[in-house]
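Hi there. Long-time user, first ticket. I'm pasting a complex I've been working with (about 459 residues overall). I'd like to know whether the download I got is complete or cut off, because the file seemed smaller than I expected. Thanks.
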Amino acid sequence: MRQSYDVIIVGAGIIGASCAAECAASGLSVLVLDKGPIGGGVTGTCMGHIVILDDSEAQFALTRYSQRLWNELATKLPEQAEYVRCGTIWVAADQEEMQEVHRKYKSYTENGLEAEILDNKALLKAEPHLAADLAGGLLVKQDSVIYPPAAAYYLLKQSHKNGAVVRSASEVKAILPEGAVGFSCGTIITGSVVINACGCQAPEFSKMAPIKKRKGHLAITERRDGFLNHQIIELGYLKSAHAAAGDSVAFNIQPRKTGQMLVGSSRQNDSDDPSVQHHILSKMIKRAFKYMPDLRDVQVTRTWTGFRPATDDKLPLIGPDGDSGKIWIAAGHEGLGITCALGTAKLLCDMIMNRPSEIDTKPYCPSRFAKGNTEDV
Amino acid sequence: MSDNVQITINGKTASVTPLTVVATALACEGVTRFRRSVTGEPRTPLCGMGVCFECRVTINGQPNSRSCQVLCEDGMEIVTDE
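Hi, the file is complete. Here it is re-exported in full:
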């Protein structure tokens, strides 16, 4: 193996893999390192929902840009990536939440997205297993689902075709300021730049990555073909996702290409413990029963947890770490890492190569968290 | 020793000693294909303790029953390789 590269990427999750594919396609020599297997972190434990969100203008811009890139890639993805454009239904429990349906509809359609307001009858026609008393919902048509580790594997394979070297089971001990990585055996590999794409582990290598772990639980069911047609999320999810403190659950269910269903979601801010906690799981499943009572007859076959890499302002860190131009960060996407992966990679590669970007990169710049810079946030 | 219990495996009658685990009964009767994966590959018990879900069969009409967690009962009908 050569000992110098244009770009060294630490982390072979969906973000690192996307960066590798983009940088290698742009003609850079690339080395990807991960302490574990490909997609062995949150990429392997998350839902894989490619979804547009509009909590902020910057979030909307990045999710929309990145989703468009996924749409363009969709036909090239292998069968194992299990890509399905099933759409998302945001479910309103009551009339108050229907107001949010109307707001979201206006915001999405004004920006050229396809959406449709569903009343109670239309909602039940689209998803017959939902509870009969729900007020309605918003169908967002271009959202899709994917199996993230397989997508990460595909992206790394593409990068490899363009000359990238991918090494799993290679634990980096330090990212060095001169743009190199060090291993515990003493070996140092140099690069023109190093990208920190370590998700929840990003803070171990960077002072400029104020990323917190937000624990989530997921359950997957047996195969039930035709039971579920869309990814469904309760609109209360946004309240849950925004809760700064405490544990919360929200109904979120996803149809897999295999006929299985992935059931979520939970959010815990102060847990480092990866074990499944039954009081949280039980709360999450009961929430699902409230929205979809027929789920009581469906067996869950596995449950697990994962940690979302979260930032305080709900936006990822994409950009330079410090002023040297040697170290870069692409991390902190919380629940939108899969959605934003391709867009993140494009933006970061644009910055590294000094190319213009399609969307404004400033809102994601890690320096917004630097001391004395907090008013800019 | 109490009498054996009679079960049927894919329509064929078998006789097993009481308190035999279904997965064991199936193995003793020469069943190797317990279920099929999403892509149609054969699956057989792995963990034997209810965690891996590889040993799922249909027991008395209930699909996806973990055969390693159920004891044979008289008249039980088991269908495998689905």
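A couple of notes from our side: The mean pLDDT of chain A is 94. The longest strand of chain A covers residues 300-310.
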